Amino acid sequence: MGVSPLQFAKNFARLKSDLPTLLAPDLKLLRLIRFWPDLKPLAGKVSYRTYFDEYIPFIHHLVTEQTLFDFSIDELSALRDILRSLDESNETESTRDLNSHKLRLVTYRLATILCYVGDFEKAIPLCAELSADGDIAFPDSEDLEDLDAFDALRVLSERYKPEHPALGNILKDIYECWEGERSCLNHDRAWCLFVEKNQIGQATLGRMRTLHGTVELRAPLKKDGDSPDTVTFDNQVKSPDDPFIGVVYDSLTAVRNLLKKTRFSGKADGSYRAFFSIPESRQTFTGDSIGLAAGLVAYTQLLKTEIMRQERFVASEVAFTGGLDADGRLLPIDKDTLGVKIERAFFSPVKYLALAEECLADAGEYLNSLSRKYPRRRLLLIGHERLTDVIENHNVVRSQKVCIGEFVVRKAAKYSRATKVQVPIMLILLYFFLCLIYPKAWVFFDWNPQYVKFNASSTGFVAMNKDSIPLWSVEYECNSIDTTSSWRIGDLNGDGRNEVAFVPGASKTLRCGSNANLFVYDDDGTLLFQRYCAKDDEYPGTQPPCGVKPVVVEKVGDRSIIITGATRSFPARLYLMFWNHEGDLLGWYINAGYSGAFGSNFLRYSDSQFVFLGYNNRMECACLYVLEPYSSYGVSPPYTDPGYNLDNVKRGNQIYYVLFPRSDLNRAVFADYNSPGGLFLESDGRFRADVFERDAKSAALSYYLDSSFRVVNVSYDDCFRPCRDSLVAEGKLSAINWSTYCNNLRDSLTYWRESGWVTEGQRRKSEQKAK
Hints:
With 771 residues, this protein is an alpha+beta fold. The protein has 20 helices and 32 strands. Helix 2 packs antiparallel against helix 3.
């Protein structure tokens, strides 16, 4: 017998109240999946239709490639059943189309995981469904019996393609993505395994995430006994007693001790400054699971350019779990979480799992139980006692030859410009002929970057000099980068040569992550630093950053600043980050909405004040705010929202925050917002903020503000008045006195104070009373 309507209403209200408390979007989605058995029997009942109208958008919003990443086969199957049921009951065409799209995402992800483990009996029908090839069964052939899942998938993609090309292409896509994962080598990232725990500490969900890291050798070690290293995670400095990142300090010590015993001992003579992040993750992890991966990333970062013409890389077909102590010993994993981690690695594209040798026996038992069910999946365990053993394992850390001809010539050229040397005539002749063959060897060749362009394969960029001659190139681990990529060039460190700040944008590739990574290169192409340009967990929401715009600002005093602005949706917000030329985070700020183009909607008012014109989506209008780049922090107002819990956000320390409410013209044309049109400093010292009230670049209002960012007067452009007059003629607006109208617009301008919002009109009345 079902529950009563009243009890169901309470259960549904509890569901909605639970969702905002779950930070990770996949946990929200799992909560919705668990509620489906209560909702499904009520389909078709008119009195319960409103519940479906709320439930369906929740599901559609949360089903993304990233959200499905850690889902198991059973969870994906359950979600697929829900979407198929909703597909049958959706009434509008737009909702059906969206549901169909989400169903394809889930089906493709489920088919991919089934291919990883070699369960082609179930994977092939799913791929056939995606390709609209009808009912196609898996061919049980003898030549597939001895192949592992990876090789069998390659054979199947070739076998199906002649008669079923659409099906063959889907299988080929899965195979090529898998092959790309296996063949990739990295300097700055490694796969890590974690677990999600419930409120009583039980491991409930395995997670596999990419740990990104940059480790830089700094000044000589201090001798006062203080910790010589600094570890920053997601742009926040962490202490050695941090429950998750603290273990990285031991990893850095282990790497330093290891390097002291090698020919690279010079890499151990200074302090380390480490920057780590786990992009696209809103979880708060604990434990030492990050230690081994962090140590390997630190090792490859410190040895990434060696004169021996090879570089160290971490193979992407290996996943890591477990910690390191300061002596370089691998720490065992909690048995309560080991099985969950083994299972997560098993249903993934990795070939190896590296962990402490002490855990091998238990890990083998878990692995054998899975292998009996999926015999084609052959995950291999790598167990070692010390970090040195892991590094010497060529399945984990690999060396790759690199061309240094150009590198040596360029370094020699720089050296010749910097020193006076006696050069024999024969060497001069040889050098002359070398320059004829290779013009870049010429000591006066212009190596200074002036602009960049995408490379031929659209996987990176080429730095060009003023004569449009290629200087050096960079490639990223993306299928392709697109026009969302952005770059700026300028002399950041004051050496008279240009550095390149670049953000790779890729709308459809996981390997480029969130499009929220800033890379800054020296004039010779050396990576100076990489930074993650968002602050996770500072604002509620589920979507990853969808783009970053870097702006290189001219020197402020004796320093240079890079500003990055990363955007996210649902809810909309902008992450502003201020970096110095060494990659240190100076300040950060989150605006509750987007910002317009940085060029016209950003203004440097003084060395200590930057002004931004943008949107405030919570307040549904354009806004202006003033920040101090060296000390800014926190979130913009408002601090209440009916859809999101903002109780725990850090309130911003903005100097000023101003709203430009929508005009009656804007509301009459059914626009969602007015929009920022440009920010200008007038000759009399006032600021002018242009706000579009209709279409872009039309019907603008100009707000004039004094040095305290208080409105002085308001005017309108040549388009605004005719547009409004036409609406008056149509009976949509009332006729007005234009002088009075502008004064009303002025008085509607709204400011944020600690006590809340206050309008210009309210301030004027208060000041009148005070007189």
